[in-house]
Amino acid sequence: MLEPVKFSTHHGGAREEGLIDFSASLNPYPPEWLDEMFKRAKELSNRYPYYERLEEELGGLVGEPLTVTAGITEALYLLGILALRGRRVIIPQRTYGEYERVARIFGAKVVKGPSDPERLAELVEKNSVVFFCNPNNPDGRFYRIRELRPLLDVVEDKNALLILDEAFIDFVEKPESPESENLVKLRTFTKSYGLPGIRVGYVIGFEEAFKSVRMPWSIGSTGVAFLEFLIEDGFKHLRKTMPLIWREKKRMEKALKVKSDANFFIKRVGDVGKVVEALKKRGILVRNCESFGLPEFIRFSVRRPEENERLIDAFRNLGF
């Protein structure tokens, strides 16, 4: 008899039409080549989607060898197969909940710790695994390499493994990313290209291990078409749209008295249920942060100027 794993899941993203979706933290500007990409995906849909050559080209574009996965979610489950079974897994208390879910599915011993890298480093033991989201979800805090150094040093000293989730790093102005033999970096195009339905991401580190357990054809014909256009684009879309997002982010920080290094914010509103429903009546969807251990907070993203203005006006009307 198969029994379900008893662990609730909470994710952003609209499940009903007609709302401006601030709950999912995505680039609000789709690529100009989107229609052409879907046409190409249709052409590819009658064959098995091999993408090893594209994977090599993407590695050249990124500047490091990598493993393409169906978003960061597939990478997490591959980590479960490779590194989590029976291991001591250290996770900050207020971060993305899928780390804990995957760790428990694979029988790991989960230890919750503080969000600060230096204090989290105190919990690292020999051969343990550490998850760290940078910038962190949900608060958007980005830690520079010098701030991560205590955690990086202890991971190397204890022969532990650091899983650095950099899903939102494309939204950080002047980002930096550490290097270590005891480090796996997870990245995704879901966020930065605003295409959550196209499950394409990549892993940096331990390429042979990840490719040995990766499911064949995991990204499908749409993912292959996306990679083709992405490589041809050479990240020009990101260079064009990120300054637009950063400009709006600064405006929202000033208007709503919030702060973040990423493309989303958290804000304390007290009665979250009441505020979420009040915003829905105004056609706006935000994220309840209860699953992050922040029951009085909501999370909302940076969207286009006219949409952000509606959110700002709605907050003002609600007295925030």
Give a verbal description of the structure:
The protein is an alpha/beta fold. It is 39% helix and 15% strand. It contains 11 helices and 12 strands. It has a 7-stranded mixed β-sheet with strand order 2-8-7-6-5-3-4, sandwiched between helices. A 3-stranded antiparallel β-sheet has the order 9-12-11, with helices on one face. Helix 6 links the parallel strand 5 and strand 6 (161-165). Helix 1 crosses helix 8 (220-233) and helix 3 (71-84) packs parallel to helix 4. The longest helix is centred in the C-terminal third of the chain and has 21 residues, at 236-256. The chain is globular and about 55 Å long. It starts with 19 loop residues before the first strand and ends with a helix.
Shape: globular
End-to-end C-alpha gap: 51 Å
Could you estimate the helical fraction of the residues in percent? 25-40%
Provide the spatial order of strands within the biggest beta sheet.
2-8-7-6-5-3-4
- From the alpha carbons, calculate the radius of gyration and give it in angstroms: 20 Å
Overall mean pLDDT: 93
In N-to-C order, the SSE pattern is: EHHEHEHEHEHEEEHHHEHEEEH
Strand element count: 12
Q: Tally the helices: what do you get? A: 11
Strand-residue proportion: 15-25%
Secondary-structure-derived class = alpha/beta
Low-confidence stretches: none
Q: What summary fits the major beta sheet?
A: 7 strands, mixed
